[in-house]
Amino acid sequence: MSPEQRDEFLRQPNTAVLATVDARGRPHAVPVWYLWTGEVFEIIGGRDSAKMRHIERSGRAALCVDKRGTGAFHVTAEGPCELGATATREWRLQLHTHYRGAEAAEKVVADDAHLRQRFITLRPERWYGWSSR
Description:
By secondary structure, this protein is α+β, with helices and mostly antiparallel strands. The chain contains four helices and eight strands, in the order H-E-E-E-E-H-E-E-H-H-E-E.
């Protein structure tokens, strides 16, 4: 897969799996939604969630995005992460619009849950993948 094909795939509303490692060395993998900027993955999560604690401790994660069924493949990015500030309503609206559409997104963000979430930015250092094609 070329970098252009990879970017096109990553800009689609795919659910990904974010993998981190806890203090005991145990893997922790959770589904997340993300936005791909062409350089970094932007993700939000619960301020006090396990993934936040793991990233705060190690500063790293991997994100796997896959397509299932006929022509299955996956793209995985691994690299350093930065924990950011409290998520904004605007960014959460952009994320939910990407995945659900504008009308549904407006309803979701009305609850102000972004105030209990914060940003994660993952900057890929290493890419790997697999394809059944």
